[in-house]
């Protein structure tokens, strides 16, 4: 296509897509095979904690009556993904049993397979294969500028993956309560209602504390350097041959599409060695009060519903309740 100028093809890499950051939120970390997944917006991976749109929904522990907020933005992103307006979605939280096995830990460093499905895995592997194929073609064509541009993107991806893995280590999650089971009701925006069930310690691990701790000076510097590399890469892409630019465009667009498919078909959240997944069919309600009354009857107490503002308490109500106020885990 000699009549078509593709000198600005590298600018596609700067497109402000959240695909890479969204993948980070669903997997709770970053794997080293992510280095081969090159899609627009890869320099925005560190912004993953902002994907929840600033929402930290109120949640009530129906077993104790305590009311607090979910502080983990990645968990909120997943709840927003699975929640439907006017419906109660029940989730289960379980611990990954094989996380202490050496082979499993090594594999999880390469690819987060614990919450993957067949389609998401195939899409992800196709994105990796696309990068390898395009890089091989660049070498065969002896388009060394094209090889350098792709390797530069991969190095920027490696820097971000390294920082994400360091920041995603499990930290404070509240006092341990072994043997206790929890039952949480989460009120999301747009009248989406989520019920989370599991061991109290498991629930704390995915709802409380920090998902990604604040970066250190060195980590911030590495992330900034990786961002500058992506912008530099966009400028250097003009030196790539015409065919190389076409291959680069195809790689960026196809990788974005494949990673988007992988994200959509990832039905579970992996977080700090735990899996959050939908458990059972959703239940529709004509009124939120109807759901509240049903859950009150099931839990045997209504203080949590009062504190959430779902019902009002009569003055002569004799139901026992915890002191009102916000309690954190």
How would you explain this protein's 3D organization?
It is built from ten helices and eight strands. With 329 residues, it is α+β, with helices and mostly antiparallel strands. It has one domain. Helix 1 packs parallel to helix 8 (242-264).
Calculate the mean pLDDT score and round it: 89
Main sheet makeup = 8 strands, mixed
In terms of DSSP E residues, the strand content is 5-15%
The 3D shape can be described as elongated
Number of helices: 10
Q: List low-confidence stretches.
A: 318-329
Elements, N to C (H/E): HEEHEHHHEEHHHEEEHH
Briefly note the structural class of the backbone. alpha+beta
Distance between the termini: 61 Å
Helical content band:
40-55%
The radius of gyration computed from the alpha-carbon positions, rounded to a whole number of angstroms, is 23 Å
Number of domains: 1
> How many runs of DSSP E, i.e. beta strands?
8
Brief rundown of the structure:
With 329 residues, this protein is of the alpha+beta class.
Present the secondary structure layout:
Elements: H1 19-27, E1 58-61, E2 67-69, H2 73-82, E3 87-95, H3 102-110, H4 118-140, H5 144-167, E4 181-188, E5 192-199, H6 200-207, H7 217-236, H8 242-264, E6 269-271, E7 274-278, E8 283-284, H9 288-299, H10 303-307
Parallel strand pairs: 3-5
Antiparallel strand pairs: 1-2, 1-4, 3-7, 3-8, 4-5, 6-7
